[in-house]
Amino acid sequence: MEELLEVLKESCPTVDFENETELVSGKVIDSMDLIAIISDIEEAFDISIDMDKIEPENFDSLEAIWELIQQIKGE
Length: 75
Description:
There is one protein chain. The protein has 75 residues and is mainly α. It has one domain (2-74): ACP-like (Non-ribosomal Peptide Synthetase Peptidyl Carrier Protein, Chain A, Orthogonal Bundle). It contains 4 helices and no strands. The chain has helices spanning 2-11, 31-45, 56-59, 62-74. The longest helix has 15 residues, at 31-45. The radius of gyration is 11 Å and the shape is globular. It starts with a helix and ends with a helix. The relative contact order is 0.20.
């Protein structure tokens, strides 16, 4: 999860990914931030995130994003 945290901090350095639990639903990050985060995650973890996985609950927290990555890698 440390690698993910580094990727997220590079994408959005002003966001507290370690403590925030409503990144999307609380409008902490906007749609442009989310696109950058998805792109960076796909590149860093060599995965492809399908459109049906792009939902607020999958990107609201560090833990949720990590779970999504693990789910995709396990498919």
